[in-house]
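Entry type: protein chain
Record version: 2
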Amino acid sequence: MYQKNLCSIHKRLLHITSFKSKSIYINCTNIPKPVGFSPYTEEALAVQLASILQACADPSVLLQGRQVHAQTIVNGICKNSVLGTKILGMYVLCGSFMDAKNMFYLLELWYAAPWNFMIRGFSMMGWFDFALLFYFKMLGYGTSPDKYTFPYVIKACGGLNNVNLGKLVHDTIQVMGFEMDVFVGSSLIKLYGENNCIDNARCLFDKMPQKDCVLWNVMLNGYVKNRDSDNAMGMFREMMNSETKPNSVTFACILSVCASEAMISFGTQLHGLLVRCGLEMVSPVANTLLAMYSKCQCLFDARKLFSTMSRTDLVTWNGMIAGYVQNGLMGEALYLFREMISAGLKPDSITFSSFLPSVSESASLKQCKEIQGYIIKHGVPLDVFLKCALIDIYFKCRNVAMALKIFNQSTALDVVVCTAMVSGFVLNGMNRDALEIFRWLLQEKMRPNSVTLASVLPACAGLAALKLGKELHGYILKHRHDRRCYVGSAITDMYAKCGRLDLAFEFFRRMNDKDAVSWNSMITSCSQNGKPEEAIDLFRQMAMRGTKYDCVSISAALSASANLSALHYGKEIHGFMMRGVWGYGLDGALCLHTLFVYMTKVKSKSVQFHMNAGVWGTYLGVALVHDNFVLVKWCIKENFDMDPHNAGYNVLPTDLLPKGLCY
């Protein structure tokens, strides 16, 4: 309704053509001028003061700006329109809106400059409602906007996500002939690109007669925001073939595409181009390059780049720490965090948000409290992400009381923090508490996002609350959250754990996009619910469709094979394992499942996997079940060699004596 009202107001104001009013200002003629003050010297003084005001457009020199303003009043030149507008601009850029408002109403308002400064100031401060209000007042006053008005009006439309009003403003721009202006055009392209109207953005981009680097970057960034990597790469190639040379912003933008799509080969080529252009060490480019290598799991290259950087800022350190965490190298992340503090850099909330997952992996409650103490002692701002990170590590350390304390101390709660609480309660098996938080979230008129819904569905599964799960499914469909793969996986898992495998199958078949998690969820559900043949069939479909299977997929399929006691299925899946990326470097879980398939066929010299004490113990148990005493001897020997202080292996042989085994 609010957006519709804005659009209707805009339409009505555009029809006002004959509105006239007297200007509103305070007459300054009663202030005495110095004797002999001629018009020529008045104009010269105004020019001098205007040039001084340009240097005062910063909050740190607001006092000096006010002194210049006082000089205009003392010298009686406060009615000079150009100088008055400069003073207004100075107050706006210094962020002193009370002074700006007072100055605004002293000026002639029949020309656009004063209005432009006010609209610009409100847009810069993020007060987009007020920016549009002054734009409407400008139209109602009868003042005609110019090409400097519209970029900030369009920015306000984008800030409010009101693309419909932006389109009406675009119509006005076309009528007034400003559409082909580079600044106006780039603002419109940015609006369309960031509000899922990428076709409108491309149409306008193609019409622009002159395309500078900023315009290319805005269009490229639009494709990146819409996750259209193919068109983003095409746009970059077009730019390289044009007369416009890419700058650091261009490379940072296209490197982010390489990072998200794991295009390490193209990213490496870009790195070489950056070296030739001399942009490799420009801070934004270097940081994006570092992120690209980290996300593509090339941590050696990332660390090498980090070590060769002549200047490293906080963003660089944060990126390197985040790279280690994303790749599961928690020890290295912790070491780098300590190294960062030793280098004299003060970590911020982003540092801790990146670093805290490495602490949660070790589940050290003492470390958690030390880090929280450091945050409080050094006054690190406790923003949403840092709150969530602290809540997460306390839940993983099984300290629910501390997580609740942080949650209750939060003055401004939002969906993200509530989602962290829901996930934490589910992790600790406190499903009813998770549902209570979710109900409170709805009562507070917060709108749950897709992550919230994917987090609360396991609580329904844990309680076998099928009715509530169906209600959540209806809410998800109504608000179109089912398009996310992880939400779909949570729905299928919920139905399966509530005993409705038929509903899980029905929803799974309707899913358009299925990632590895979706397939794994369904394969595991079938395997655990007495449908081993369906699980194996799903695994085959997953492999045939080109979805990259992982340890979870193979573990579930091997479990299904074991349940069927079907050796040929096990051999088939074993073949997938060997053709996969693991080779013989499989972890203990996969060896364990492989064992159950080959339980009657295993030979003492045929095991080529990396074995640990847990896996040897499992082999020993299976050998006992099948009275394979040759294998029992071998397993006992390996267990003693690997873990000689384990008392369990000293007790086992006593139980074997009645079976005829001479220990």
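Comment: The chain has 37 helices and no strands.
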